[in-house]
Amino acid sequence: MIHALGFDLDGTLFDHRGAAARGASVFLSALGVTVTDAAIDAWFAAEAVYFEQWRSGRIGFAEQRRARLRELLPGLGVDLPHDDAALDALFERYLAAYRSAWKTFPGVRDLLDDLRRQGYRLGLLTNGSTAQQTQKLEALGLTDFFDVICISEQIGHHKPDPRAFAELVESLDVSGAECLFVGDDPVSDAAGARAAGLAALLIPSDADVVATLTRALAYPGPHCPAASRPIA
Ligand SMILES: [Mg+2]
């Protein structure tokens, strides 16, 4: 019996790709770059490479940001600042544009509200920096939906490390078998959760969390009066 639901944040509840694409577009335009699909793809490629280097402990969080700018900007015709402080200030300009584009996927707050009403305990497990993910949850109005919030920098383990999922279910006071983890990454979320003994639901890239989870839980959907039964 599932008593608790664990959620990934970026790409699952929060439209990271939409916000980052908008942020990168505003940021690069302000630097004089003609923003093309290729430039945005390069932005995401650098993000993937260096965020993973941070996640696996090879570089620090600020350094992964600097490395992204160092890799990307010269090829787009932008001169790089020479010192870290100036690179950090430059990245802040991206972050301001990224933050102003933050939004959840449609229906997410209604979904979480309904799941709480149905009696599920709700947890969040996200890879990222404590400061940024906390700020994001607050800005999105998501913080109060969760009984437990685990941010990988804070707990010291990143998904797919089973210890990250163990921390989540322990904090939720359920067993792994009683928790369904919902996320968009086949490795960090789905495989990681299953390896740690949780049930897992992968949100396909062409689907959304509300429709996918509603179907998986076999209930009529957010704010439907007939919605009542947790899954067995
Ligand atoms: Mg994700």
What does this structure look like?
By secondary structure, the protein is of the alpha/beta class. It is built from 10 helices and 5 strands; from the N terminus they run βαααααβαβααβαβα. It has a 5-stranded parallel β-sheet with strand order 3-2-1-4-5, with helices on both faces. The relative contact order is 0.17. Magnesium ion (MG) binds next to loops.
Descriptive key words:
single chain, 232 residues, alpha/beta, Rossmann fold, 2 domains, 51% helix, disordered C terminus
What secondary-structure arrangement, pairings included, does this model have?
Elements: E1 4-7, H1 16-30, H2 37-55, H3 61-72, H4 84-100, H5 108-117, E2 121-126, H6 130-140, E3 148-151, H7 152-155, H8 162-172, E4 179-183, H9 186-195, E5 199-202, H10 209-217
Parallel strand pairs: 1-2, 1-4, 2-3, 4-5
The protein binds magnesium ion (MG).
Distance between the termini: 5 Å
Kindly provide the name of the CATH class of the largest domain: Alpha Beta
List SSEs in N-to-C order: EHHHHHEHEHHEHEH
Main beta sheet: strand number and arrangement?
5 strands, parallel
Mean pLDDT: 93
Structural class by SSE content: alpha/beta
Provide the CATH superfamily of the largest domain. HAD superfamily/HAD-like
The main sheet orders its strands as 3-2-1-4-5
CATH architecture of the largest domain: 3-Layer(aba) Sandwich
Say how many strands there are.
5
In total, the number of domains comes to 2
Bound molecules: magnesium ion
Radius of gyration: 19 Å
Number of helices: 10
Low-confidence stretches: 225-232
